[in-house]
Structure formats: C-alpha cells, structure tokens
C-alpha cells in the first residue's frame, strides 16, 4: 500500500523526465474515441502490435519519445512498430520551447513531431503551463507579469503547432494531494489562472483537444481526484473550454491499481470530457496491474487511449523499477502480452462514446459517422431539418441528428427524408443536408479504406480540423486521417 500522505520531493539538478511520485492507492483490486479508425479488420483476426490492437476499438496506444534517443535503432524500431501516438518527454515543455523570453525554439519538439508523423503516428503536446521545468526568466516573474508570460507562451507554442497535434496538456499538476490548489508561482497570479490558460489555448488553436493532466487522481475516493473533478465540473458548467483529462497512472512504490479506477474514469467521462491514461508505468511491470488498467480503459467508452512513459525499461525515469512493457534489451515482457491480449479481446466491438463514459447504443434507424482523426461525429447543427444546413463535426451524443442510414441507392439519409448533399463538385464544396432527390450529388460510396466519396465528384468527405464545429466539405482524396470515417 502507498503511504497515506504521499509526498513529491522537489526536483533535483539533472533530474530525469519526471519527478519521483508515490501513488495514493486504495485497496488492491482487479479490476471512445480518438481517431485511428479505418475499415474494421476481421473480428477474428488478432492484431500483432499495441497500436493496431487499440485501434480496433477506436483508441490509441502511445509512448513518450525523447529526441536524444532517436538515433538508437532498437528504440526507434520498437516505437515505430508498436505505437500510434507519441508524446514528447521534455521537448515541448516551457524551458525547452522558450529558454529566453520572446525567443522560441522548436527544433527538438519538431524532431519528435516529424519522426512520428512520418510514420503515421499522431502527437500529443506536453505541456504548456506547469510549475516545474520553467525557464529561469519565467521563474523570476510574478503577478501580472507572470500571468502575461504564461499567456504569451501558450500563444507562441500553440501557433507553431496549430492544427498539427491531437491534444495538448494545457495545464499540468496544479493540485495538492488534499484536493486544494498547489501553491505554485502560477497559482500566485490568481485562482483563475487555469481557466485563463484553457481559454487562451482554445483561442490559439480551436482544432486541438485541450486536456488537464495530473498524477494521483486514479483513486476515486482520494482528495486530489475530487479536487480535479470539481474543477472540471465547474469548468463544464460555465463553458470553460476543456476536452479531456489525463490520468498519469504511475503505479509506484508498491501501491496498486485502485479497485475503483474504472469508477474514476467513468465519473470524469460523465462530465462530458474524454479521459486518457497519459504516463503509464508500473513497478516491476505487474501483469495484473497492466491488464487491469487496460481493461478499465476499454470498459469506459470515452477512455480514448493509453500512453506508456517510455519504450524500454532503460528509457524510463524509473529505470531501476522495471516499469515498462519492454526490457532493457527491447524484448517484450509478460505485461506486454497481457495488454495486447486485453486490447485484442475488445476488438472492434467497443461502441463509441455517448458522452457519459458508458458504452452507448446507436440511435434507432441509423449509424454514427465517426471521424478517424477527430473521434467526433458528423452532425447536423442544432438538429436543424432545413435544406442547406451544412454538416459539421461534433461530440457523439446518440441523437437523431447524428443518425445516418446508407440506403440501397447510395444515399446517406438523416431524419428519414433528408440526404447528405454536396453543394458542388469542386474542392471545398460544402456538404449539407437537403431533401432527397435521387441526384448524383446525393449519392456516396462508403469505401473499405474508410473514405466516403461522392458519386458525382469522386472526391472525399473531408474536414480541416478536429474540433467541435469543424465544417465538412469534399476534397481530392489524399489518404489522410481527416478523410477517413467509420459507420457504426
């Protein structure tokens, strides 16, 4: 069991990528959707890698990558083969991206981004506002000067990566163990600093998911978990933009997977946010704990993915505890097999989220059309039935304005009598609803590669971004994730 009052010691010079942390555990117990979806494989065919197995249920399985290890062929071979999401360990943090005020540098972050995207992986940004790993000039500021520096930093970094990242950890580790706010230099600028950070981030890049990230928030009954939960509930009630919560999931020092872990995930998801396990590592790579945390995520429709914090044990900030899925030599461990088996057992059967964190049933008479890149549904705004209403992406909610039926005449109908309609045949033509008329601009081919192409134009359904409200158009097919959808 973990200590009843876990402590986080201050960072030491030359620290590794994360601080030593102790999980406030409860009694041991055994114990969607970010888009990597394309056409679903045979339900009987088990995937052979973590990323492919997670993708079967619309999730990702990622890892943290360090730029200085990209020259290690064993490291890159495993990472490139196994994972479909990447988080930079340190290269996108404040001290790395703005070492001098007003002078941004992205070379190391870009190295990771380019390596990942060249291999078809998506990238999470980590992190924009944090009390640790701040550059010296930022540490010397306070009050309104520090507040403005935070805003400027968020704007500067997000401008560079605008439209490129799946998500950003906007704020990291802002709570104490008892659920109160951490008394950091950022907190000293005013209790609204987290809200300001999220509003700034939304304005800087409306297309990316905005996350709050923390450790020791896995146990539902723990004070810190409740503090974060109450903040997010408040934010959602007041329209503060927040899309996801990251649970770091460091199981350390003998503490175990809480028996109420799935309750925690479901409770956060019920607020209307995605949940993700963002920095997973487990002392001695406990097979039961790895399998349990994986299954808990699979059991909550809005748990969008899992990231382990490093590739091999030797790459971990906790290297002496054998915490990852590959040993120092790059060999798969028993925990790897337990995770892969759990992911494959879920297969393509996990239904998409209804926003409550529980598996949902597609609306009667239709299917969702879910974007592979965004995990969001093609939606008729405000449930309008007016001809000419342009369709958009929006969080899947199980309502009739997201229920589409593919007819034998290749029409995609909504409300029974309205058809998905291309307002033209050229690149950028709007996609809207219109009374069904049997014309070719209302006929669509739903293809095995996940694309949906217009019979009239031959062009693909396409979205430029991933956020709520992104409008749908047709565009030349290019094989990218923003043109792939699944009907389920």
UniProtKB/TrEMBL annotation:
SUPFAM superfamilies: (Trans)glycosidases (SSF51445), Ricin B-like lectins (SSF50370). Its EC number is 3.2.1.8. CDD domains: beta-trefoil_Ricin_XLN-like (cd23418). Keywords: Carbohydrate metabolism, Glycosidase, Hydrolase, Polysaccharide degradation, Signal, Xylan degradation. One of its GO terms (molecular function) is endo-1,4-beta-xylanase activity. Pfam families: Glyco_hydro_10, Ricin_B_lectin. Residues 344-372 are annotated as: Disordered. Gene3D superfamilies: 2.80.10.50, Glycosidases. The keyword Acyltransferase does not apply. It catalyses: Endohydrolysis of (1->4)-beta-D-xylosidic linkages in xylans. Residues 44-342 form the GH10 domain. InterPro entries: GH, GH10, GH10_dom, Ricin_B-like_lectins, Ricin_B_lectin, TAT_signal. The keyword Signal applies. PROSITE patterns: GH10_2, RICIN_B_LECTIN, TAT. One of its GO terms (biological process) is xylan catabolic process. Residues 352-366 have a biased composition (Low complexity). PANTHER family: BETA-XYLANASE, GLYCOSYL HYDROLASE. Belongs to the glycosyl hydrolase 10 (cellulase F) family. This is Beta-xylanase. The lineage of its organism: Bacteria, Bacillati, Actinomycetota, Actinomycetes, Micromonosporales.
């Amino acid at each position: 069991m973990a200590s009843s009052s876990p402590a986080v010691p201050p960072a030491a010079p030359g620290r590794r990528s994360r601080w030593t942390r102790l999980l406030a555990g409860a009694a041991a117990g055994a114990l969607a959707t970010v888009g990597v979806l394309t056409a679903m494989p045979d339900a009987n065919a088990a995937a052979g890698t973590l990323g492919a197995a997670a993708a079967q249920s619309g999730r990702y399985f990622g890892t943290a990558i360090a730029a200085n290890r990209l020259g290690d062929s064993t490291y890159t071979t495993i990472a490139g083969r196994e994972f479909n999401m990447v988080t930079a360990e340190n290269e996108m943090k404040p001290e790395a991206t703005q070492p001098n005020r007003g002078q941004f540098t992205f070379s190391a972050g870009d190295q990771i981004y380019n390596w990942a995207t060249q291999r078809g992986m998506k990238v999470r940004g980590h992190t924009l506002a944090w009390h640790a790993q701040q550059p010296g000039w930022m540490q010397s500021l306070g009050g309104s000067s520090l507040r403005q520096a935070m805003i400027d930093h968020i704007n500067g970094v997000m401008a560079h990566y605008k439209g490129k990242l799946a998500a950003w950890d906007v704020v990291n580790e802002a709570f104490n163990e008892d659920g109160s706010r951490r008394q950091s230099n950022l907190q000293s600028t005013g209790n609204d600093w987290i809200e300001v950070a999220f509003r700034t981030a939304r304005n800087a890049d409306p297309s990316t998911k905005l996350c709050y990230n923390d450790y020791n928030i896995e146990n539902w009954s723990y004070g810190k978990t409740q503090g974060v939960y109450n903040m997010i509930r408040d934010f959602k009630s007041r329209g503060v933009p927040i899309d996801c919560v990251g649970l770091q999931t460091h199981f350390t020092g003998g503490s175990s997977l809480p028996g109420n872990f799935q309750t925690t995930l479901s409770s956060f998801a019920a607020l209307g946010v995605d949940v993700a396990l963002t920095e997973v590592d487990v002392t001695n790579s406990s097979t039961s704990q790895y399998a349990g945390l994986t299954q808990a995520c699979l059991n909550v429709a809005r748990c969008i993915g899992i990231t382990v914090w490093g590739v091999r044990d030797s790459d971990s900030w906790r290297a002496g505890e054998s915490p990852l899925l590959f040993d120092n030599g790059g060999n798969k461990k028993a925990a790897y097999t337990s995770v892969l088996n759990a992911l494959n057992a879920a297969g393509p059967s996990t239904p998409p989220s209804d926003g409550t964190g529980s598996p949902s049933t597609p609306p009667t008479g239709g299917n969702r059309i879910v974007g592979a890149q965004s995990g969001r549904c093609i939606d008729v705004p405000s449930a309008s039935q007016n001809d000419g209403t342009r369709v958009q992406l929006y969080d899947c909610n199980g309502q009739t304005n997201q229920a589409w039926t593919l007819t034998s005449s290749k029409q995609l109908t909504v409300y029974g009598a309205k058809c998905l309609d291309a307002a033209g045949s050229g690149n950028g033509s709007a996609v809207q609803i219109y009374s069904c008329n049997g014309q070719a601009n209302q006929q669509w081919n739903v293809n095995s590669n996940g694309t949906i192409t217009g019979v009239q134009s031959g062009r693909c359904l396409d979205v430029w971004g991933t956020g709520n409200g992104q409008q749908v158009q047709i565009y030349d097919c290019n094989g990218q994730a923003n043109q792939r959808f699944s009907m389920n």
